[in-house]
Amino acid sequence: MPTLAVVGAGAKAIAVAAKAAELRAMGVRAPDVVAVEKAGVAANWQAGGGWTDGAHQLGTSPEKDVGFPYRSSVVPRRNAELDERMTRHSWQSFLIATGQFAEWVDRGKPAPTHRRWSQYLRWVADGVGMTVVQGEVERIGIAERSGALGAAERNGALGAAEHSWALGTAETTVYADAVMITGPGQAERSVLPGNPRVMSIAQFWHRALAHERIAAERVAVIGGGETAASMLNELFRHRVSTITVISPSVTLFTRGESFFENTLFSDPTGWTGLTHTERRDALARTDRGVFSARVQDALLADDRIRHLRGRVAHAVARDDRIRLTLSTTQGGECSETVHGFDLVIDGSGADAMWFVPLFTQDALDLLELGLGGPLTAESLQDSIGHDLAVSDVYPKLFLPGLSGLTQGPGFPNLSCLGLLSDRVLGADLSHDLTRRFDEHQSVR
Q1: Residue 274 lies in a domain
Q2: Would you list the DSSP string of 1-41?
Q3: Distances in Å between the alpha carbon of 437 and those of 337, 432, 442?
């Protein structure tokens, strides 16, 4: 049975593992799913994970769970059976199993806290017996074609194909026929590391978790997405005089949440028929750099909030302040302005390319061979195929976090985990890799 290794044990890994388990229970061939995780299952949704204090509410509906939208297409003539099986891992099933369903309904079906959502995800992972290898992935390379793999360490259900990805941690090496990379990267990065007047996402939430009040006159929050939004929600409770939100957009836009906009996430059937410009416009309107309606309501009620348009080009500490140089483009001309703050919180969010430094040179060569050119964020995004993997790269490399532009806005987030698992599990992992590997060796 082929092995699919997933970097990170979050919602995407759990959704794929759950559907793979149900497929095997139906007697259908499905890969063994092994998550490699440095902290714990659903760690980024828990206090201490660096991305939240666990007390803030989930930005999407909890009904968009690991099986949503329950419209499987991976098993002809048996998809209805698969959907029925997946309902056993639904949000409602979790609430029923833990005695919380009636209360949730009576309270008007509120959005759960991040902590409660992590409990749900762990419940699903435990229920399907998801294999988790504890450790931080330090390198991702291509295993040799020789018989060396026959002596490779095996861990539980782990197998080693003749041509494999090799994921190295400090403790072990995991071999897999395909790899899926998930997660937002490092929450510790900031525009001015080491300065006490500049806080990373992780530093901010660790301070909130310790109930340490922030006291400052002028505070800047960099970022216009949901990561920054949840930080603003917390910051309202602290002793600050003004809060300036810095983002590249002309204003703080509200995320489109009507039926028509939500459909783009749960049913991306017509997405590939749109032009690149239309897709980028849709992403900008519904997903990237926008706040939910709930957060916008809170912003409207607080007169301390300001907005500055621009990208942070430079940051420097001077005269007990952090001076940020903001770059903006108007009419094709670039201009820069400097603004001073007592405290800067870098909530600009994830780096979509955070995983690239993990690749060994062999792996980078293989990716550039498949891409037909240099490895960039743009080339990777444009190369993502229907199965959410990089086209013409074998063994398969699934990058759902970069698939929004080519496949639809729901795949990078929590909005269509059931469709995501269909795409990944429906991929062909049995390609003859000899020709591709030989081409790779010839260009070295």
Answers
A1: no
A2: --EEEEES-SHHHHHHHHHHHHHHHTT---PEEEEEESS-T
A3: 50, 10, 9
pLDDT for 126 equals 98
* Contact partners, residue 5, CB within 8 Å, separation at least 6: 34, 35, 36, 165, 167, 174, 176, 178, 179, 180
pLDDT reported for residue 172: 94
Q: For the CA atoms of the chain, what is the radius of gyration?
A: 22
| Same-domain status, 144 and 30 | yes
Domain count, the chain: 2
Q: pTM of the predicted model, to two decimals?
A: 0.89
CATH number of the domain to which 29 belongs:
3.50.50.60
Does one domain contain both 172 and 230?
no
Low-confidence ranges of the chain (pLDDT < 70): 144-162, 251, 254-256, 287-290, 293, 349, 430-444
Asked if 228 and 340 sit in the same domain, the reply is yes
Q: Domain range holding 400?
A: 3-185+351-442
Residue with tokens 């195929």: 385
171 and 39 inside one domain: yes
Q: Reduced to 3 states, what is the DSSP secondary structure of residue 153?
A: coil
Q: Which residue has the tokens 């074609």?
A: 145
